[in-house]
Design a protein that fits this description.
Radius of gyration: 32 Å
Helix content: 25-40%
Largest sheet: 12 strands, antiparallel
Shape: globular
CATH architecture of the largest domain: Alpha/alpha barrel
Number of domains: 4
Oligomer: single chain
Number of strands: 35
CATH topology of the largest domain: Glycosyltransferase
Length: 844
């Protein structure tokens, strides 16, 4: 009896254990399912804004109205009983972009259906037609059995992004069979993570959101882990570089294009997966927050993303600089949601500044509801960063940004490492000269490069460029690698800098050396060695060519009558005015907004050509895709240029850009300029800024002296003396091909080395400063050193001594490691304390 009871008890125990195990299994399954549901709800809220908002808030109400109107437009034009198409303008079976467009329209209709406060919210009629559209396009255009045609991007990226979002918004209204069909098609075309750069981030997003929809943990892991390589800095090819550059398509700068898309998707996924089983924990994710400071913040001016960072996107009517600026700000807001406390505070501070200073495009009008809510909270509670004052070199992508009170200046170059411009898929057809040293001036006229700048500006005369005047065909010379490597520059104190470009213009044999010296309230532009001949070859037809340097090509007001003053004389404000002006010493152009006036000073005087004109163009002229507008647009421009004549040999130029100055201030500056051009030759271009006590030089050839600087190699060098107490020096190898060292000599006597970057070896402090910089593998990096010029700042233990140990009163410190009694280290790096010493008059 007892055995039976025991046996029965054992069976009961086993049964209970089995039931507990089964129950635990189902609980775990339910928990996992709940987690997928939670993530799907979070993604839906990111798309729609959720339900916890006031639809009557004016900013949100305006967005709801726009969402509803867009959906109604697509809904009313849709064939409700489709035969061979859903929309009459999307009938092609060979143009894959039409599939992406169709899914985009369906998504926008679904957005209205899912948006709280919309008159179409939960509309049964709209839902029925959306489901009809989804089933039709699955059956006829996008399914697991169809063969790809057209652009791979539509099949693998464009369609899946739109389709995933649509399914998330309509998840509870779709049948399991529908969800399975649509997600099977997505998996067919986007099954795994395999690409680089922004394309990889899109892949990860698609696979993660699909994984949430179908509740596939393996896909979630693949998506999360697929992000990891993106966090790493790259040394070549696509991705982010440590200097802040972002490259896509091998050699095209793209911070404001693919870079913005990449950081958007990374930020979205990091926030989406935060707190879940698949949270991003890779240690490299801190790099994503660092990119905001290095790769985006310097390039966003009052809410606009600088055009030189946007590649071929400049030719898109729907993606002008303020549009991209909104996208970048949205990405930074999203990153702030998962960022460490210090980064979060900094990002919020930036965002508030950009939103508050953008008087051209109201962020709340163009952002989605979720972002409106987040931005309003930031605007109410964060402290504005204020204006960013900074000089930033991007040697890996041949660009530089100079941000000063009241203006921002940027220069876009190209080299043997970086392509001149991108033109693919019929886009950016006239971007010929955008990478030839085009300069941008940003100020209070914050609509200068938006509001239809690119289809109306003369593409043959872009500011800062020196060009042959031959007629170009669409996409001529695209993705051209120059034969010349000397492109780059250096900076000092993070506030001032110089850039240079050894120009080799595609399809011509025009060459030139071009430099920009960026100081406090002025930018000095020098050109030398401007040479071309009539030789046949490399696209040259042998015809004598005129060569020009464009000083300015500025978009004017709608009336086009901005005042133009030359040497104190007002020029005609009538459109159509043109003139060749001789003996020009200074020019002033009134801006389109307060604080946006510009001055120009020409050292020694020059002959300058001027033109005021109305220009008409179409977006289709620069973006040949069928969706691009053919409507004519007119813009008014003032153009100033230097004519170097026909087939020039060693022509040159010099001018100074003076942002924000009134006519009287420009006149005063011209009478007493702050700068002196030390040399403008094919060997050296050098300038001294007297007020700042800066000497700056670009050495195009080896073994030359400019002012107090001598370099034995090609280099970019700056010095700044600080009240006679010390001197700062910065050096770079813009060629990025020097595998050895650059030796620099500064015609100053120093009493010690205050600091020196790794790679700098100081060999002498007196009678001149000499040091070498190991630039092998530096990739254009700036090296910095600082030297003490005051004899009273010298550490006692480092003073030369006699044999008995007494301080040697009469000495010359050669800073040689073998110097008698010299206890300084090989690099001359010391801590300094004040030390007084009476020495004979002959002492050092």
């Amino acid at each position: 009896m007892s055995k039976k009871i025991k046996r029965l008890g054992s069976m009961v125990t086993l049964t209970l254990m089995l039931l507990m195990s089964i129950n635990s299994f189902f609980v775990n399954q339910a928990s996992a399912a709940d987690e997928f549901d939670d993530l799907r709800a979070r993604w839906k809220e990111m798309i729609t804004g959720g339900t916890a908002y006031n639809p009557l808030d004016p900013d949100i109400a305006g967005k709801i109205t726009a969402i509803t109107a867009t959906a109604n437009t697509h809904w009313s034009s849709m064939d409700k009983t489709p035969g061979t198409y859903l929309w009459s303008d999307l009938t092609s079976t060979t143009d894959s972009s039409q599939i992406t467009t169709a899914y985009g329209r369906i998504k926008l209709m679904a957005l209205a259906y899912a948006t709280t406060g919309s008159s179409l919210h939960n509309s049964a009629a709209l839902l029925a037609d959306i489901k009809t559209a989804l089933d039709w396009i699955y059956t006829n255009r996008y399914n697991e059995s169809v063969t790809k045609y057209g652009n791979w991007w539509d099949w693998e990226i464009g369609v899946p992004l739109n389709l995933n979002d649509t399914v998330v918004m309509l998840y509870d209204n779709l049948s399991p069979a529908q969800i399975t069909n649509y997600m099977t098609a997505v998996n067919k075309f986007q099954p795994s993570v395999s690409m680089t750069g922004a394309n990889r981030a899109w892949e990860c997003t698609i696979i993660a959101v699909r994984g949430i929809i179908v509740k596939d943990a393996a896909k979630m892991i693949a998506a999360r882990d697929g992000l990891s390589p993106l966090f790493a800095y790259v040394n070549s090819g696509d991705g982010f570089y440590t200097d802040g550059s972002f490259i896509q398509h091998e050699k095209h700068p793209y911070n404001g294009g693919y870079g913005t898309a990449l950081i958007t998707d990374i930020g979205n996924l990091m926030y989406l997966l935060s707190g879940s089983t698949w949270a991003v924990t890779h240690t490299g994710k801190q790099n994503a927050y660092d990119w905001v400071y290095d790769s985006f913040e310097p390039l966003i001016y009052k809410g606009a993303m600088m055009d030189m960072s946007r590649g071929r996107n400049i030719s898109r009517s729907y993606a002008q600089d303020h549009d991209t600026g909104v996208s970048a700000i949205k990405a930074i807001i999203r990153l702030s949601q998962s960022a460490p406390a210090a980064d979060k505070a900094a990002f919020r501070s930036m965002v508030k500044y950009w939103i508050n200073t953008n008087t051209y495009r109201d962020f709340f009008t163009y952002a989605p509801i979720n972002m409106i809510l987040l931005a309003k909270e930031i605007d109410a509670n964060a402290t504005s960063r204020g204006e960013l004052i900074k000089h930033k070199q991007y040697p890996r992508m041949d660009q530089a940004v100079h941000l000063r009170p009241g203006f921002g200046f940027a220069v876009n170059m190209s080299s043997s490492r970086i392509y001149n411009y991108e033109s693919i898929n019929g886009e950016n057809l006239k971007g010929w000269y955008t990478g030839d040293g085009m300069t941008y001036l940003y100020n209070n006229d914050i609509s200068q490069y938006t509001d239809n700048f690119w289809p109306t500006v003369n593409p043959y005369r872009l500011p800062g460029t020196t060009e042959d005047t031959l007629t170009r065909s669409n996409s001529s010379g695209k993705s051209y690698l120059s034969s010349r490597s000397w492109v780059g520059g250096t900076s000092i104190l993070g506030l001032y800098g110089i850039s240079g470009m050894a120009a080799d213009i595609n399809d011509t044999n025009l060459t030139a050396n071009k430099s920009w010296f960026m100081f406090d309230d002025e930018v000095v532009a020098l050109g030398s060695g401007i040479t071309t001949t009539g030789q046949t070859g490399n696209g040259w037809d042998g015809t004598p060519r005129k060569v020009e340097t464009t000083v300015e090509n500025r978009k004017l007001t709608s009336s086009g009558n901005n005042a133009l003053t030359v040497n104190g004389t007002a020029k005609s404000t009538a459109l159509g005015w043109s003139e060749t002006m001789t003996g020009v010493n200074w020019v002033h152009l009134a801006g389109n907004a307060a604080g946006s006036d510009i001055g120009y000073y020409f050292p020694g005087g020059t002959t300058l050509k001027g033109l005021r004109e109305a220009r008409t163009g179409k977006w289709r002229d620069i973006d040949g895709r069928s969706s691009s507008s053919t409507a004519p647009i007119t813009g008014n421009y003032a153009t100033l240029w230097l004519d170097h004549g026909t087939n020039p040999t060693n022509a040159d130029y010099s001018y100074v850009l003076l942002p924000g100055k009134t006519s009287a201030q420009v006149s005063s500056y011209a009478a007493n300029p702050h700068i002196t051009v030390l040399e403008n030759s094919t060997n050296v271009q050098a300038v001294r800024e007297k007020n700042l006590n800066i000497t700056a030089a670009n050495f195009w050839t080896s073994g030359h002296t400019a002012g107090i600087i001598t370099s034995d190699s090609k280099a970019s060098v700056m010095t700044k003396e600080n009240a006679g107490s010390d001197i700062e020096v910065s050096v770079s190898d813009p060629t990025q091909v020097n595998t050895g060292s650059i030796t620099i000599e500064i015609a100053k006597r120093a009493f010690g080395t205050i600091s020196a970057d790794a790679g700098i070896t100081v060999s002498q402090l007196s009678p001149t400063i000499k040091f070498s910089v190991n630039v092998s593998g530096a990739k254009g990096k700036t090296f910095k050193a600082k030297f003490n010029l005051s004899p009273t700042l010298y550490e006692a233990e480092d003073l030369p001594t006699t044999a008995s140990g007494a301080v040697q009163a009469d000495f010359t410190d050669s800073q040689s490691s073998n110097g008698a009694g010299n206890k300084l280290d090989a690099n001359g790096v010391n801590d300094y304390v004040e030390y007084s010493l009476d020495v004979p008059s002959s002492g050092t």
